[in-house]
Design a protein that fits this description.
single chain; elongated; alpha+beta; four-stranded mixed β-sheet
Length: 287
């Protein structure tokens, strides 16, 4: 029996949007009508920003016996005249029930990808004001919606750094569990966690305020500011090491291969360790 093949009508679609929201329907076809099959779908932003350019959506698409097509709906949010073109993708994946994807189209056999371009409807009859014209120019340079999303993430980052209520509740639960078990080791571990959290708290707040999130402007502000702060910290460590060597009558060469090397290498080591543990790929842990 031939497998059911799921595919879009085409690989790319262009959508024009004006001052009103547009509800888009994307048709998914299948070949073979003998059994019930399904797949998951989700949207994925490229240059388009979810919540500003389109409404993020996900779910499961079901094909019942005898059904040859189904629709996936996605909403495109209003755009200003002259606003730059952006792109997002609609991804089909995790087919079940014996269904496969068309290997000849974008995504291969593992998934099916439809690329959706969003353009603003030109309004030739309207006079574009200076503020709108300036905003459109700025949008082409720095992507205003991406910048707004970065600011939102920055606010959340600062709020999470200053307000540790969720972490405190988890710590209290762990402490209660350790007390119920009657183990002194669990209580000591809980106290150690509290002390380390108190020591790290000022630094968490400092870096949450002064380093923007990587979601802002492609991560460049985060990279450059973090790099500048690392350089500043290195200068401070070198000056403190020279001062210590002068007071302790230790040569600069000995200080360099001990205190300075330790102070500059250990942060990189722990940063790489955290990146390797938390990230799906270990690319960020390569130094």
């Amino acid at each position: 029996e031939c497998p059911c093949v799921l595919t879009f009508d085409e690989d790319t679609v262009e959508v024009s949007c004006g001052s009103e929201r547009v509800e888009c329907c994307f048709n998914v076809k299948r070949s073979g009508h003998g059994r019930e099959v399904s797949c998951k779908y989700r949207t994925r932003g490229l240059s388009a920003v979810p919540g500003y350019d389109y409404k993020e959506t996900s779910g499961v698409l079901n094909f019942f016996p005898g059904q040859s097509s189904a629709e996936v709906r996605a909403a495109v949010l209003p755009r200003r005249p002259g606003q730059r073109r952006v792109v997002f993708q609609l991804v089909l994946e995790e087919a079940s029930g014996g269904a496969v994807f068309d290997a000849t189209m974008d995504g291969g056999r593992e998934s099916k990808i439809l690329t959706v371009g969003i353009s603003a409807i030109p309004d030739d009859g309207a006079c574009v004001g200076a503020a709108s014209w300036s905003l459109n120019i700025l949008d082409h340079i720095v992507a205003v919606h991406d910048f707004k999303r970065g600011l939102t993430h920055w606010q959340d980052q600062i709020r999470e750094a200053f307000c540790c209520s969720a972490e405190d509740e988890e710590d209290e639960d762990e402490h209660d569990n350790a007390s119920e078990d009657g183990g002194s080791v669990g209580t000591a571990s809980w106290l150690l966690t509290k002390v380390s959290t108190a020591l790290v708290y000022p630094w968490n707040c400092f870096y949450a305020v002064f380093i923007p999130p990587p979601q802002m402007m492609g991560g460049w502000p985060c990279f450059l500011i973090a790099l500048a702060q690392l350089g500043l910290i290195t200068v401070v460590i070198v000056d403190l090491a020279e001062l210590f060597g002068c007071v302790a009558n230790v040569r600069d060469s000995i200080t360099a291969i001990s205190f300075v090397a330790l102070g500059t290498s250990m942060p990189d080591f722990f940063a790489s360790k955290i990146a390797a543990i938390q990230e799906e790929s270990a690319d960020a842990s390569i130094i």
